[in-house]
Amino acid sequence: SLRIEKGPKRVIPDPLDEVLEGGKQRAVIIDKHNAVLVRDTSTAELSLVSEHGLFWPKPYEQIIEVRKKIILEQYETVVCKDNTGRFYYASGDMTLPEELRGPGPDFFLPPHHELVTASWSTDLHMNHDTFEEIERFDSRPRNMNYEFECRTLDNVSLLVDVTFFWKILDVKAMIECTKDAPGDTCTHARSMIMAEISRIKLMDFLGCFNEIIRNACLKDNFYNERGIDLLSVEVLRFSCTSSETDKVLQEIIKETCDRLKFKERQKGENEVALERLEGEIAEETVKRDLIEVKKSHMKIEAKIEGEAEGIEIAEFLNRVASTEFNGSSIGMKHALSIFENIKKMDFQLESINALTNGTANLTVMPSKANLNVGNPLPYPVNKTSVYSD
Questions:
Q1: Dihedral of the CA atoms 347, 348, 349, 352 (nearest 10)?
Q2: Whole-angstrom Cα distance, residue 40 to residue 88?
Q3: For a tag on the chain, would you pick the N or C end, based on fewer CB atoms within 10 A?
Q4: Per-residue CA distances from 255 to 152, 258, 273, 282 (Å)
């Protein structure tokens, strides 16, 4: 018969006792993160012990392994297979209903159950030369690079390196359709891109390569059927497989870059010139406003001066018109004539002063001189003879 001796104590085997293979062993500590998978050697049945405390196997019990609890993050999902081969899913997303979340977000894998792994390609050409075993499927967006060859309509062979930004939408659909989601995604995308590029020439590809790649990949239900959402596709770089053609391509790209650089520089110079013109326009606008203000002030000053001079002239005319001469007033008509003659004489006097005070020489012939002194009175004066005593 078998017996288990638990410490701490001294054990002296009987003459016919035999220590089984493994000898003295430590008890297993069971807590909320650890359980023990035990096999009953008498019945070959497996059982999972998760009761907290120290665990000592009973007679005919064998510890197979200490099983860790599976703890899933909000974005993680695992696929489990039971003893009948049926798949079931456990998710860490607590927003899902219980029937969709399964045993997640934390559970011990029962006996005879195992995690399903997927073998995902990780090499640049997705030939499955290198791969990664995936147990936990992350639903967060991720990116992957892929390099392949294609040929344009004018028979130019290109080596294109693209990057895919994608995420898992439905783990169940992905597991049912493919074991290598990145490899299938890249292989199908390569077929669509090659078909699209084969219908255009190299120069057309250079003009809108990202748009061509997106149209070839993003408008396809192939990925959604496999539980994958292809968010975006971008061309990282491309080159010609022929060195001579690639040299010409690099020259074309350089000329294009130079042209864009010149356009940007010219655009910058145009913007500077435009700003300068706008500044000058603003300055002239301010000057115009200043001139308008000065003109308004000059008009007001001239109006005031004119009114003052008009008042003086009116007083002068009234005073002259009311002056009596030979028993009658001169009158406004004759007063205006007197005022005009005075103004003419003032103007002639100013002209003579300007000539005499200036540096110019004026020569006047007697025949050309028409000098006279006007009669300030517009009507004839009675002549009186004066005789001396």
A1: 130
A2: 27
A3: C
A4: 21, 5, 27, 40
Report how far residue 37's alpha carbon sits from residue 65's, in angstroms, rounded to the nearest whole number.
5
Task: Copy the structure tokens of residue 98.
Answer: 């219980």
Q: How many CA atoms lie within 13 Å of 11's alpha carbon, on the beta-carbon side?
A: 12
CA distance 174 to 118: 10
pLDDT given at position 341: 83
Q: What are phi and psi for residue 229, nearest 5 degrees?
A: -110, 110
What pTM was computed for the model?
Answer: 0.60
Q: Which DSSP helix (H) or strand (E) runs through 148?
A: strand 142-151
| pLDDT exceeds cutoff 70 at 149 | yes
By 3-state DSSP, what share of the chain in percent is helix, strand and coil, each rounded to 5?
40, 25, 35
Q: Half-sphere exposure (CA, 13 Å, Cβ side) for 75? A: 8
pLDDT in tens, 266-311: 888 898 999 999 999 999 999 999 999 999 898 888 888 888 888 8
Task: Note the Cα 245 to chain centre separation in Å.
Answer: 35
Alpha-carbon span 268 to 276, nearest angstrom? 12
212: CB partners within 8 A, 6+ apart: 193, 196, 197, 200, 205
The four Cα atoms 198, 204, 208, 213 give a dihedral, to 10 degrees, of 0
Local confidence band at 142 (pLDDT 50, 70, 90 cut-offs): very high
Cα(239)–Cα(249) distance, rounded to whole angstroms? 8
Residue carrying the six token digits 């219980």: 98
332 to each of 321, 328, 342, how far by Cα in Å? 5, 12, 15
Tens digits of per-residue pLDDT, 27-71? Answer: 899 999 999 999 998 898 999 999 999 898 888 888 899 999 999
Q: Name the 3-class secondary structure at 67.
A: strand
